[in-house]
Design brief:
alpha/beta, five-stranded parallel sheet, four-stranded parallel sheet, about 40% helix, binds D-glutamic acid
């Protein structure tokens, strides 16, 4: 029988990781749960995010998952430590902004690199520590975006046309003339091509590496299509 894994995000962002799960053919039964009605988490408090995560974890425990992927940079930096303490019986894998890009072979020697992320991730202690550790001289310009995750949520999950609002949000980045832009929120890769062509930039999306790491940590085999994936957009419906 396949192992059961849970996937959590505030909204549709985690689907960008599901794409990679499918791409490598991780052999697991996946349960995706999100909190669509409270997107975005980017401006919310740590306490609120922890409370919502606990509800999502409780719903996933009913499905008997043994591993949970926090498919959200914001939730990872704000809650993963607490969740690991509260649920020692579960394995948690998170995703964090790729601030060590310049130390990685793929980023070696790159210039004009930017990183976009939510305000909550930007303001978190965990992100500040990561930045000090991996990019102490701030070679990567980090720009928090207030509305982009919500706009992507609306673009993907409704008929509302928000392209103009997305352009307005991306316009803030034009003055930096980035050559490479690290996507530090799981919602962003869902419109990676749009971002690349609008800003004439190359998007850096670490999601494939995250899923390869997940496969390694969990010992799950890869190479076959996943058996099953179940979605719930509202805390355990
Ligand atoms: N997708 C989430 C992330 O990776 C956050 C989106 C939100 O602000 O709710 O940070």
């Amino acid at each position: 029988m396949n192992k059961k894994i849970g996937i959590i995000d505030s909204g549709v962002g985690g689907l960008s990781l599901v794409q990679e799960i499918k791409r490598i053919g991780l052999e697991a039964n996946c349960y995706y749960i999100c909190d669509h009605q409270n997107v975005p988490y980017g401006g919310k408090t740590q306490q609120f995010m922890l409370e919502q995560s606990l509800k999502m974890v409780a719903a996933l425990k009913l499905k008997e998952v043994s591993l949970i992927l926090l498919a959200c940079n914001t939730l990872t930096v704000e809650t993963i430590e607490d969740l690991r303490k509260l649920y020692p019986e579960l394995q948690f894998v998170g995703i964090e902004p790729f601030i060590n890009y310049l130390n990685h072979p793929s980023g070696n020697g790159k210039q004009n690199v930017g990183l976009i992320l939510t305000e909550a991730t930007f303001n978190s202690k965990r992100f500040k520590n990561l930045q000090l550790k991996h990019d102490p001289n701030s070679k990567i310009k980090v720009v928090p975006l207030k509305n982009l995750a919500l706009l992507i949520e609306q673009k993907i999950s409704s008929d509302i046309n928000v392209d103009k609002e997305i352009d307005n949000e991306l316009n803030i980045l034009k003055e930096f003339e980035f050559d490479h832009l690290i996507l530090g929120c799981t919602h962003y890769p869902l419109i990676a091509e749009y971002i690349e062509s609008y800003l004439r930039v190359m998007a850096i999306d670490p999601h494939l590496q995250v899923i390869q790491q997940l496969a390694k940590l969990s010992g799950l085999p890869v190479g076959n299509p996943i058996n099953d994936i179940q979605f719930s957009s509202n805390l355990g419906d």
